[in-house]
Write a structure and sequence with these properties.
Blueprint (H helix, E strand, L loop, with lengths): L1 H12 L4 H8 L4 E5 L4 E3 L7 E16 L2 E8 L18 E14 H10 L1 H27 L2 H18 L7 E3 L4 H8 L3 H13 L3 E4 L2 E4 L2 H8 L15
Length: 240
């Protein structure tokens, strides 16, 4: 059920009343399973529904000067196209990374629900602001860090976000990214990404095998990344 991950996500960053949780469980939706590399949304589309990621991973991307630039990843519980409630034309592509399952909720149902509930209006507004904060952090990551810090920061962020919705277990989580995906997200070549991941492995900071990433020395990796989770705005950040 799509509402389960969505409730977990909104609870982690803002809290929900029992009544609002019940409202979310009553949302109408259509579920769709997608293979790797399928487009959920294309630049220029005018969607009439918002997407909830149920499982898998989505990327927001554009082709700039013949190169794909990924500007965000979205995990289970995220609503990557929530701004289309007010900005009707999509300005980027939204694409699957690995097999994924999504649920589409009509704009009309979301608007009706938010008219009934100031609490949910606040929760979705807060969620939009958090994704804007994540985007700003990505800009700073690309503009200010060397390759090792960029890749380390990406892994630290995804680990933390996975933990928020119960998808990471003791620093280990499934991540279906290819080295090309990491390159497109970090503004690097595939060769540079390969060398960077090998360096992180040699330093004993991570293990990355068969699409499973494990942070072996999380604190040291956060130091390399200069990572601080405040911009993710979880209510009760984890220590350690």
């Amino acid at each position: 059920m799509p509402h389960q991950r969505l409730i977990s996500r909104l609870q982690a960053v803002g809290g929900l009343s029992e009544q609002d949780q019940t409202r979310l469980t009553r949302l109408p939706y259509k579920v769709k399973s997608l293979a790797d590399g399928e487009y959920v949304l294309r630049q220029g589309d005018e969607p009439r529904s918002c997407i909830i990621v149920m499982s898998g991973l989505l990327s927001r991307q554009r082709v700039v000067n013949a190169r794909t630039q990924i500007s965000s990843f979205y995990i289970a519980g995220d609503m990557p196209d929530l701004p289309t409630l007010h900005l009707p034309v999509a300005d980027c592509d939204l694409c699957t990374v690995g097999s994924s399952t999504i649920a589409a909720v009509p704009h009309s149902a979301l608007r009706d629900m938010m008219k009934e509930s100031p609490g949910l209006t606040h929760a979705f507004w807060r969620e939009t602001l958090i994704h804007a904060a994540i985007y700003r952090e990505w800009v700073e990551n690309l503009g200010s860090r060397q390759a090792l810090g960029r890749v380390a920061h990406l892994l630290c962020e995804l680990t933390t976000r996975m933990e928020f919705v119960g998808l990471a277990d003791d620093g280990s989580f499934r991540l279906p990214l290819t080295q090309q995906d990491v390159a497109d997200a970090c503004g690097l070549s595939v060769v540079h990404v390969n060398r960077t991941i090998q360096e992180l492995r040699r330093e004993g900071l991570i293990e990355w095998q068969n699409h499973t990433v494990t942070l072996l020395r999380a604190k040291e990796l956060r130091d390399v990344a200069e990572f601080s989770p405040e911009y993710l705005h979880e209510l009760n950040p984890r220590e350690g």
